[in-house]
Amino acid sequence: MTPPAPARSPYRLAPMRPRDPHEPGRTASSLELFFDLVFVVAVSLAAVQLHHALTEAHVAAGVLSYAMVFFAIWWAWMNFTWFATSFDTDDWLYRVLTIVQMSGVLVLASGVEAAFVAHDFTVVIAGYLVMRVAMIAQWLRAAGHAGSSRRACQTYAVGIGVVQLLWLSLLVLPASVVTIAFVVLVAAELAVPVVAERRGLTPWHPHHITERFGLFTLILLGESLLASANAVIEALHDEAALGPLLSVAALALIVTAALWWIYFWPPHHTAITSLRGSLRYGYVHYFVFAAAGAFSAGIEVEVDVLSHHSKLSEVAASFTVTVPIAIFVLGIWWIALRQHADRVVNVVVPAGAVLVLLDPVIPIPITLTAVIMIVVVVVLVLRPPVGGDRAGAIASP
């Protein structure tokens, strides 16, 4: 028997009650998928600017700017994702506030170039504040019907609001202390869910959450393929050598496919059955997502080296590819894979990541990277997840 639809207010709004964390058949909504696409615009622009910085040999400054911009992107995305799994009503106000957050992403994206080139984060912070203020409104609305989660919702709203006021202070601080202040504010942002959830857990749907993370990972990996294809096409216009370019394109395809295989090998939902596990899963994904975005930049840097448009040496350029690969693999191994792996897999996967990281000092780094990733995938095929169905794990996160 179909349960009755929740009563709506005269304004055609549904009570924002907590969703059932065991709701059968819960999947990502079309609004959530639309939301992800807007974030990918910001990620793509950040990766492009990272590529330019690395090509000009501004490695430290480029990586720092990328880490700062990517935090704003990732944190706003993750906060919405965890909120949606608990309180998505899909009524008009929920949709409008979500679209407001999307507008903030576009504002942030428009300020990415200035953040990298002039270290001016004014527009990035403005876009971030738009996203976060909309999130405060969502939490305040949820607090009205949250039941045992009411105090958590209120803590989220207050905590986010206080930290946003502190972000504004970043605009008037001297440049010499901006980085330190940024680290302090990041710690404050990360502390809000820890404090809030201890005052009354919000209900999260493990399968829905991990599907959302998996879908965003797929989009980021797709960016790597697109970036490599565009870089090769551009290089061909300059009459660069075809053979080396094709080898980079092949590397991009093989590694991207291997990263997909590794990510979806274990069932992810078992990693978020507790608050501690959920925090670890969500927070480590910052490095996983950032690495996926940086991998596309690294591929473009490799192409620039081959077409003699980069100030980096060949060894340094190789590191721009291997470091993101290693971070991605080690991140997924730590938060999801190792608990479903036997001893062999738990040796091969992290060892493979370390070997890839050391590839640039080998005379044939591109070929060796591809071979190592293929070997890791072969081991995963031969040794299915412990306590999980291999086919099911590959089909969904």
TrEMBL record:
Residues 1-24 are annotated as: Disordered. The chain crosses the membrane at residues 33-51, 57-80, 92-117, 123-144, 165-192, 212-233, 245-263, 283-303, 315-336, 362-382. InterPro entries: Low_temperature_requirement_A. The keyword Transmembrane applies. Keywords: Membrane, Transmembrane, Transmembrane helix. PANTHER family: BLL5714 PROTEIN. This is Low temperature requirement protein A.
